[in-house]
Structure formats: C-alpha cells, structure tokens
Amino acid sequence: MLLCSAFTLDHPPTVDELVAGSARIVSGRVVDQRARFDARTRLILTDTQVEVDAWLKGSGARVITVTEVGGMLNGVTLENPGRAAFRKGETVVVFLVDRETGGMRTYYGPYGKLGAQDIGLVTSSIQRSRK
C-alpha cells in the first residue's frame, strides 16, 4: 500500500463555498469506475463515470468522467484521504473543477461529493449566489 499526502483544512467548506468555487456542479448516478496507471504522473488514478441527471452549474455531456488520484490496481493500493470515494449505483451531487492535467476532479476532495439528499441545499445556494 502506498500513501498519498492529504490536505488539511481549518474547517470543512460550506455549501456556499463549494458552489462559489466549483466550475461545474452536477447531480447524477455513478455508472462505472476504473483505476488506471498514469505514466506521466506515475500515479494510480481512478476514473468515475457519472450519468448526469441535471447540470446545476455549467453544462456538458450526459456522462462525465471524474478523475481522482488514488485507487487500487493490480493488487497495489494508492491511498489518498484527500479524494472523494464513489460507489457504483449511488446518486450524488458533485462539485467539479478542471484538473491541471485535463479532465475534471472534485472540488475540495471528499467534501466535493454530497449525497442526493443534499440537492435542495445546493440548489438554494446556487439561487442565492445568482442574486
């Protein structure tokens, strides 16, 4: 097992901070997840596909890929406490930013993924931010 350093925060971000800082926000269902080795960064990455039910901020494809550092590949695990964990079949709200190396990742790591039950909080925050 390999460990990846985590970031620390004075406090978890509020929903308003997540809305303000993310480039895109989607609600949808996790349909697939695959780990891979990235030769350029020499890290294990996990690509999670989300079938988008609604674009709450921004726009894009019906199915998106969220890429996070960490995962398990060929018996090797790269632990990254600073990444969001997804499960196939779960319904999520995801706050997204662009990755420096292309694609998208969650904003604020594990805090950038909420359950479907939180969609009301997110939509209220988005409406407040537009005023």
The percent range for helix content is 10-25%
> At the third CATH level, what is the topology name?
OB fold (Dihydrolipoamide Acetyltransferase, E2P)
In the residues, how many domains can be counted?
Answer: 1
Shape: globular
Oligomer: single chain
Largest sheet: 6 strands, antiparallel
* Beta-strand percentage range: over 45%
Q: Quickly name the level 1 CATH class.
A: Mainly Beta
Order of helices and strands: EHEEEEEEEEH
- Contiguous low-pLDDT stretches (5 residues minimum) are none
Mean pLDDT: 92
Compute the separation of the termini in Å: 48 Å
**Compute the gyration radius: what is it?**
15 Å
What structural class do helix, strand and pairing data support?
A: mainly beta
- Tally of DSSP β-strands: 9
Q: How many DSSP H or I helices?
A: 2
Q: What is the correct CATH architecture?
A: Beta Barrel
Topology of helices and strands:
Layout: E1 2-3, H1 15-21, E2 24-38, E3 43-57, E4 63-69, E5 71-73, E6 76-79, E7 91-98, E8 104-106, E9 113-115, H2 119-129
Parallel strand pairs: 1-6
Antiparallel strand pairs: 2-3, 2-7, 3-4, 5-6, 7-8, 7-9
Describe the overall structure.
The protein contains two helices and nine strands. With 131 residues, it is mainly β. The chain has one domain: OB fold (Dihydrolipoamide Acetyltransferase, E2P). Strands 2, 3, 4, 7, 8 and 9 form a six-stranded antiparallel sheet that branches. A hairpin with a 4-residue loop joins strand 2 and strand 3. The mean pLDDT is 92.
